[in-house]
Amino acid sequence: MVGKKLKSLSFIMIMVFVLVGCTKEDDGKFTIGITQIVEHDALDRTREGFIAGLATRGYVENENVEFIFQNAQDSIETADLIAKNFVSKKVDLIMAIATPSAQAVKNATNKKPILPFLKTGAKIPVVFSAVTDPVTAGLVDSNEAPGGNVTGTSDMTPMEKQFELIQIAFPGKTRIGIVYNTGEVNSQVQVDLAKSLKDQFGFTIIEKGITATSEIALAVDSIVDEIDILYIPTDNKVASSIPVIMDRTLDKGIPVIASEAGMVEAGALLTEGLDYYNLGFQTGLMAADILDGKKPSEIPVETLKETQLIINELTLETLGITLPETVLERAQMVSGE
Q: Which of 98, 117, 125, 262 is 20 to 30 A removed from 42 (C-alpha atoms)?
């Protein structure tokens, strides 16, 4: 009986050594893990802005900060593995870009330890960005008081401004198509928001859900003859497929209205949207506050108040559309693809 107890105690001590004792030597640098669900312009710009925001506060790459960047390539399973890897490395802070990556990190950092006295991932602070609705996604208790170890910035699209723009730029065009990923909570939130605004603007919303990027071409083809305008929400699968969407809409003369600037640069006609570099920059400042000693639970979720009106000059030319002067005079023109 005593032998069994000693064996059990030895096993526990070994586990403690393996799970707690294998930390790397402190070299004076902060280690920040950055996890991103997929590669596309908006999310890439978010990451760049984040690093720049930290640098303005004195947290500079290769000086006092080491960044570990990993991309999940649009795989939830990979996002989970990345999050668990960052927790096992005991990084000082995790930056999660887009909702699926943020949810994976939240789960990994709040997982209960095997033994109650061991340190848990919840000790690791987390900031997120490019997340539309952090409360619905289960990341924070509320935007005002996040609670726990997670806070960040929301990219909730200013849809009312975007619908106003559609109404001004395309009077009489009321059939609005939306293609979105049914598996992404942020996308469903935006579709629901569009539906809540449709009566205010006299719009009819024609939605088409997809679950994989391979379905996008067929989805657009199935509604393109029923719509006047195609609206693209901040949806990671759809955003990474703008060239495919433009192939299907340009020939039909259908303007594509985007929710953010990167989609316009990729070919969509216009947006009144957020600048993701600035959103990431703002997240970097929040991360600096945390590295300075502030708790994530004490930092409310933030949003960007300023929007940009951006028009793709080449797409405008190809469509042969004349936009009102009130739109053109305040727009930034981009050459696009």
A: 125
Nearest to 311 by CA among 250, 269, 258, 255: 269
Question: Taking 50 as the threshold, does the pLDDT of residue 310 lie above it?
Answer: yes
CATH 3.40.50.2300 for the 28-155+278-303 domain, yes or no: yes
How many angstroms separate the CA atoms of 259 and 98, rounded?
15
Identify the CATH class of 159-273+307-334. alpha beta
**Contact (Cβ atoms closer than 8 angstroms) between residue 238 and residue 214:** no
Query: Which tens digits make up the pLDDT trace of 199-217?
Result: 999 999 999 999 999 999 9
Amino acid present at 185: V
Question: Crossing angle of helices 76-89/99-109, nearest 10°?
Answer: 40
**pLDDT value at residue 157:** 83
CA-closest candidate to residue 143, choices 158, 164, 128, 157: 128
Q: Which residues contact 84 (CB under 8 A, 6 or more apart)?
A: 108
Which pTM value belongs to this model? 0.76
Angle subtended by helix axes 216-223 and 242-249, to nearest 10: 30
- Contact call for residues 299 and 134 (beta carbons, < 8 A): no
Q: In what order do the strands lie in the sheet with 65-71?
A: 65-71, 30-36, 93-97, 126-131, 150-154, 302-303
Exposed/middle/buried for residue 39 (C-beta within 10 Å: 0-12, 13-18, 19+): middle
Q: Is 218 exposed, middle or buried (0-12, 13-18, 19+ CB in 10 A)?
A: exposed
Q: CATH 3.40.50.2300 occupies which residues in the chain?
A: 28-155+278-303, 159-273+307-334
- Residue showing tokens 């930056």: 95
State how beta strands 270-273 and 308-312 pair. antiparallel
